[in-house]
Amino acid sequence: MFTGLIEAVGEVVELKAASGGVRLRLQTDLSAELEPGDSLAVNGVCLTAIVSEHGHVHFDVGPETLRVTNLGGLVRGSQVNLERPLRADHRFGGHFVQGHVDGLGQIVEWRADGDYRWLTVSFPAALRPYIIPKGSIALDGISLTVAGLGDSCLDIMIIPATLSNTTLQKAAIGDRVNIECDMLGKYVVRAAELAGLSFTSVPAGETRH
Q1: Model pTM score
Q2: pLDDT above 90 covers what percent of the chain?
Q3: Is 3 inside a domain boundary?
């Protein structure tokens, strides 16, 4: 379990084909805090450390993870958001993030608003029932708040601290981002579906900024 509060930005130093997937090697100061078998959220994807030594962490990434997340588009030099799992004895911030990506979005617009930035991201139609105005959402593992919502896009205001301390500082229009919707909302929708309710025709509404 994670919070969406990014601890560090790591760098991809190697991608090596391995049994249909890849062996991913990252450079990060967090390596000293990790042991083999530990979990680490990489761009919001929960991965298991295979080796952690000398400032590097190795992960095995399977073909399904490469297909449904933006990890499949990583290259040497790519930067990724990193977060260790939530500790039970720590104060909780952000929101509950599982590290299980629900879909891929795409950055369609950046707009300046003083020192802040408006970020517009498109999302798959299948995720519409799980996204609400003022609700929580994780983009590339970052806990964010939906400020505006349309049928296929959402708006988020990015504060300077988030921009400076995550991969968003280098994100560009057209980049794909991992989307994880709020876990609590997914359980509510699933319970309603089992009760015979359908959400396929429910419009998201228009509260864009």
Answers
A1: 0.91
A2: 80
A3: no
